[in-house]
Amino acid sequence: MECVACGSAAVTERPERTARGYRRFRCRDCGKQYNERSGGPLNHSQYPSDVIALVVLWRLRYRLTLRDLAEMFLQRDLVFSHEAVRDWEAKLAPVLAGELRRRRHGKVGTCGRPWHVDETYLKVRGRWAYLYRAIDCDGNLVDTMLSEHRDMAAAQAFFRSAKAATGITPERVTTDGHGSYPRAIRSMLGRRVVHRTSAFKNNRLEQDHRGVKSRTRCMRGFKSFNLAERFCRSYDELRNFLRSCARHNQHVPAHRRRLLHLRRVTTALAVLSAA
Hints:
It contains eight helices and eight strands; from the N terminus they run E-E-E-H-H-H-E-E-E-H-E-H-E-H-H-H. By secondary structure, the protein is of the alpha/beta class. It has three domains: 1-39, no CATH class; 42-104 and 253-275; 115-223, Ribonuclease H-like superfamily/Ribonuclease H (Nucleotidyltransferase, domain 5, 2-Layer Sandwich), CATH 3.30.420. Strand 5 and strand 6 form a beta hairpin. Helix 1 (49-61) crosses helix 3 (82-104) and helix 1 (49-61) packs across helix 8. The protein is globular, with a radius of gyration of 21 Å. The model has no long low-confidence stretch (mean pLDDT 89).
């Protein structure tokens, strides 16, 4: 561990721990003392990292409002407000989404796997915004992006982001009949990519929209664009990470499904706790 003040590697661990049980360190070069949380987004937080990680995980995974989570943990004698939940989500959700997105790089599909691209609507500040989403033929997430406009620039930005997230270029992209897609695909993915427009062949993606739509419905819209963008990306990344099926129509036994869920939830909690 490097010093949070000067970056020196001459760090020694102290024998005593903090009141919350975190390890303490001292830098031999600058003399600064700090603990495991110092320099992180949860520094000076009143509650343990595992509790905050669980709050953020449940916030992203289940249809719970900010006040629902505060009431649930009140039964465990943990008193915090809904604004604390909002603050923890703002700090940890981008960390989780970034780590899960990094793990997907080069692993989402193979070269030549087709993409299905479509956009759905979300209300932000009382106005409709466009959530661009893409999945592959097995239902695995390719990328998601929230935009205030539905035009050429938004389509190009989405394909640029999707290509950076996956590290691959598909052979075929299926979209609806919007006029911005053909030119955006040619400019961002190349002229060799086959573009087809079919409302019926995108039914799988249309059904997949129900996940984020049902999750955001209880929130009654978003107050800011940045909050909406952060939540939608984090939700989609976590939802994709917890999927037990890797292929279309794959049968996963119940015991295997539970085992995969527990393993992946443990991994997500470890990422949040280490933030």
